[in-house]
Amino acid sequence: MSQITILLLYLLAAVAFAMSRLPRFSEWVQSSIVAAYAFGVAGLVTHALYLNAEIYPDTGLILSISSTMSLVGLQLALIGLLGAIEPTLRGMTAGLLLLAAIVTIPLGTQAATAVSSDLTWQIQAHILISIFSYGLLAVGAIVAVYALIQDKRLRTGHLTSGNHLFAPLETTEKLLFGVASAGFAGLLLSVVSGFTFIEDLFAQHLAHKTALSLLALLMFGILVAGRQFAGWRGKRAVYLYLLGFVTLCLAYFGSRFILEEILGRSWS
After folding, report:
1. Are residues 150 and 255 in the same domain?
2. For position 107, what pLDDT does the model report?
3. 10, 47: one domain
4. For the chain, where are the E strands, in sequence order?
5. How far apart are CA 11 and CA 82, in angstroms?
6. Same domain? 34 vs 150
7. φ and ψ at 221, to 5 degrees?
8. Do 133 and 74 fall within a single domain?
9. Which residue among 81, 115, 149 closes a domain?
10. 264 to 67, 205, 256, 257, 260: CA distances (angstroms)
């Protein structure tokens, strides 16, 4: 029931944010914004409470595919609502909230992929930081795709009433690099905590995951530094972000395929 409530609240907020950007609803802009934030914040709080009970019940840290996707949805909603402080980003916020609503759709009973009540709090913290960082960078990947769509529309001169849902490309890039900076910091903390708290990291058949994570960290670090000191922007910077994210995906999911399907080894 909580998931359906979250879904409806996010959908209502998305519609209200979209209405606040479309000229045909100009008479209801202020009302739409108030309603959008009311529904959005209510959805965010309900989502956070639900996810806390789902991931961290009395038995310890429990993760499933559904709860991990839901965490990404929470981050989508949070970044969307923060981004909506800038009026021109409210159209994109509608899109992020729509995606957040989609990933909260119940997927049926999911078996837990990690039940770590016996693990130390340091390892549990490392797991949560890793998942949170991945989710944050996944949100950034969505913003990056959004920026590429904007760039293409500008180059082709495709002008419609829907253009009001798009922010200036520079504003979208600013949001992207803000997410990239936060994601880089989280990923760095994840890598450091992994080396600190996990013994024999390479001996546990995690060499592929570790190497790819370090490579992704390097890419995001170069991107953030390039933006900060050289003012990087445009398609090349966006493509570098997406390349870093693909590398991170391989670290989280591709390495598991290599270990289990090709090398015939256990993940743990």
Report:
1. yes
2. 59
3. yes
4. 62-64, 112-115
5. 17
6. no
7. -65, -45
8. no
9. 115
10. 28, 11, 10, 9, 5
Do 176 and 261 fall within a single domain? Answer: yes
CA angle 257, 261, 265 (to 5 degrees): 95
Q: Give the relative orientation of helices 235-249 and 207-230 as an angle to the nearest 10 degrees.
A: 160
What angle do the packed helices 90-103 and 29-55 form, to 10 degrees? 30
Which residue bears the tokens 């019940």?
57
Distance CA 32, CA 17 (A): 7
Please give the structure tokens belonging to residue 83: 């981004």
How many CB atoms within 10 Å of residue 42?
16
Q: Are residue 143 and residue 257 in the same domain, yes or no?
A: yes
Q: What predicted TM-score, i.e. pTM, was given to this entire model? A: 0.82
Same domain, 124 and 26: no
| Residues spanned by the domain of 228 | 119-268
H helical segments located in 104-206:
121-156, 169-197
Q: Check whether residue 82 and residue 53 sit in a common domain.
A: yes
Q: Decide if pLDDT at 258 tops 60.
A: no
Higher pLDDT, 137 or 264: 137
What gap in Å lies between CA 226 and CA 234, rounded to an integer?
12
Q: Which two tokens stand for residue 192?
A: 């450091």
Domain stops at, among 94, 115, 136: 115
- The arithmetic mean of pLDDT across residues 24-28, rounded, is 83
Residue 210 φ then ψ, to 5°: -65, -45
Structural domains counted in the chain = 2
Round to whole Å and give the CA distance between 69 and 103. 6
- Per the model's pLDDT, the better-predicted residue between 254 and 5 turns out to be 5
